[in-house]
Design a protein that fits this description.
By secondary structure, the protein is an all-alpha fold. Helices cover about 45% and strands about 0% of the residues. The structure holds heme C.
Length: about 210
């Protein structure tokens, strides 16, 4: 517990010392351009962005540090980020990490959520296929992330791997700081139940991923 507190303090120290810049473009100019693209289409062009949209313009401290480091944090910062990411993971109260893989497949296929025309009160999807091959029968998938076929089988369906998979989906920075993969749980994109279903999709023996 003590180590977590110390590393969280170190992390926030490292992060607050970071100043916004972007590939040679003055930060202020860049921010102006970004702000102008986040106008509410129903309002006049001079109206400020709605609060929901405006919140997208402010990166959280971790994202800010990753942008600053061009996604390559140095060893010490990376270690602190991993610790902070691990501390952010909330596990299910009943301790059961495997949900329903069939539901997990639907969540992996679903690309809805956080888009400007999505309803805020509807659950988001994980859009996992946008970056990963998962069920071999699915022909449409992206390749930004590694294939996840035979994921559980390759890890002997071990308890340890189940826990690491849940944590990886909850906060991808637990394993790879500044990962390109969204931090689904920590950023409130997916719920604990949805993450359990996705963990089952990858780690359940009956899932088509492992057939
Ligand atoms: C924007 C692209 C993107 C999306 C969307 C995405 N991932 Fe990833 N994922 C990655 C990348 C890149 C990696 C490799 C780097 C890393 O481990 O963070 C990765 C790694 C992983 C790993 C670790 C793989 C290994 O071999 O250790 C798992 C598990 C995973 N993703 C699951 C998921 C699940 C489940 C979803 C949907 C909820 C998802 N990913 C959505 C980009 C993505």
């Amino acid at each position: 517990m003590k180590t977590t507190i110390i590393s969280a303090a170190l992390l926030s120290l490292a992060l607050t010392s970071v100043q916004a810049t972007a590939g040679g473009v003055p930060a202020e100019k860049l921010q102006k351009i970004i702000n102008s693209s986040f106008k509410d289409p129903d309002k006049s062009t001079e109206a400020p962005a709605t609060p929901t949209w405006a919140s997208r313009l402010t990166p959280d401290t971790v994202q800010q540090a990753c942008s600053e480091a061009r996604n390559h944090p140095d060893k010490d910062l990376a270690a602190d980020m991993e610790k902070a990411a691990a501390a952010s993971v909330k596990y299910p109260e009943d301790g059961k990490l495997l949900g329903d893989w069939k539901n997990g497949e639907k969540i992996a296929q679903n690309g809805k959520g956080l888009r400007f025309n999505d309803k805020v009160d509807e659950p988001s999807g994980g859009n996992c296929y946008a970056c990963h091959q998962i069920d071999k029968k699915e022909l449409a998938f992206g390749t930004i992330g590694p294939p996840l076929t035979e994921y559980g089988k390759n890890r002997d369906f071990s308890e340890e791997a189940i826990k690491a998979t849940y944590a990886k989906i909850y906060n991808s920075h637990t394993v790879v700081p500044c990962s390109h993969m969204p931090r689904f749980g920590t950023m409130g994109i997916l719920t604990i139940d949805q993450i359990k279903d996705l963990t089952a999709l990858l780690m359940d023996k009956e899932s088509p991923v492992n057939k």
